[in-house]
Structures are given as C-alpha cells and as structure tokens.
Amino acid sequence: MTVQAMKAGAVEFLTKPFRDQDLLDAIEQALERDRLARQELTEIRELRQRSEALTPRELEVMRLVVSGLLNKQIAAELGISEKTVNVHRAQVMHKMHADSLADLVRMSENEASIPWPRKRIRVFSNTLSLKSHIATSPSNSYPFA
Q1: pLDDT digits (tens, 9 = 90+) for 50-60
Q2: β-pairing, 141-142 with 122-123?
Q3: What pLDDT sits at residue 1?
C-alpha cells in the first residue's frame, strides 16, 4: 500500500495511529514544496519571456558568451566587428535583466527552453531535470557545443 501511494504521488505516508501534529507537519511540508515548485515555474516562465525578446543574432552572441568566448573570438566566429559584439552583448544583458556574466550563465543553465540557434546544440536525452519537465520545451537542450 505504501508503494502504491508513493507511485501515485504521495510525498508523506503516515501510519495509524498518528498524532495530529504529525498530520499538520506533513501538510505544512507539502505546502512548502508546492510553493517552491510554483516559484520555480514562475522563474522559468520569466526567463522564457525574456529570452523570446532576444533577436536571433543576440541569441547567437549569448550562446557564445556563456560558453566562455571573448568578444574578439565571438566577432571572428560570427564574422562581425568586436564593437557589434559589444552592442549585442549589452542588449542581451539588458533584455535578460542580468547584472553580471555569472547571472547570464546561471540563466542559460536554468532555462532549457531558451530558443538557442539550432546549429551547435547538443541534446542530452539522459539528463532530465525538474526544470526540463516544468518547461514546455520538447527536448532538454543546452547551449554548449
């Protein structure tokens, strides 16, 4: 019976007789887990909305920035000037509401549904996380080549 309950989605299993406080504690834990899941879903939706505001070129620049390339290397990779890379990078930081490069990297790791340019994407089908299940992305794609 315990196994069936867990498979059906039960988080806690109380055996009879139980104290009223045990029931209240289990309910409190379940509510906290639900609050955290909803907060995470909200953050993912916000990241998705921000990423949808990026142009295809800004997405390319973001992918290369978070992979660790310097502006000069990005310029060479994309065949544009370093100044243009700086402009795109500033736009990415602004549109994604990132205060630092570390913030941008965290966002790219947390957002499996960012519509990364199709080339240079490697799909990891065996590494599914809660975030990839919450996001409505058809695959668990990461921006790293």
Answers
A1: 888 999 999 99
A2: antiparallel
A3: 66
Compute and round to an integer the Cα radius of gyration of the chain: 21
Judge whether 48 and 114 are in contact, CB under 8 Å.
yes
- Domain positions in the chain are 17-111
Class of domain 17-111: mainly alpha
**3-state SS record for the chain:** CHHHHHHCCCCCCCCCCCCHHHHHHHHHHHHHHHHHHHHHHHHHHHHHHHHHCCCHHHHHHHHHHHCCCCHHHHHHHHCCCHHHHHHHHHHHHHHCCCCCHHHHHHHHHHCCCCCCCCCCCEECCCCCCHHHHHCCCCCCEECCC
Taking every pair of Cα atoms in the chain, the longest distance, rounded to a whole number of angstroms, is 72
Predicted local distance difference test score (pLDDT) of residue 135: 38
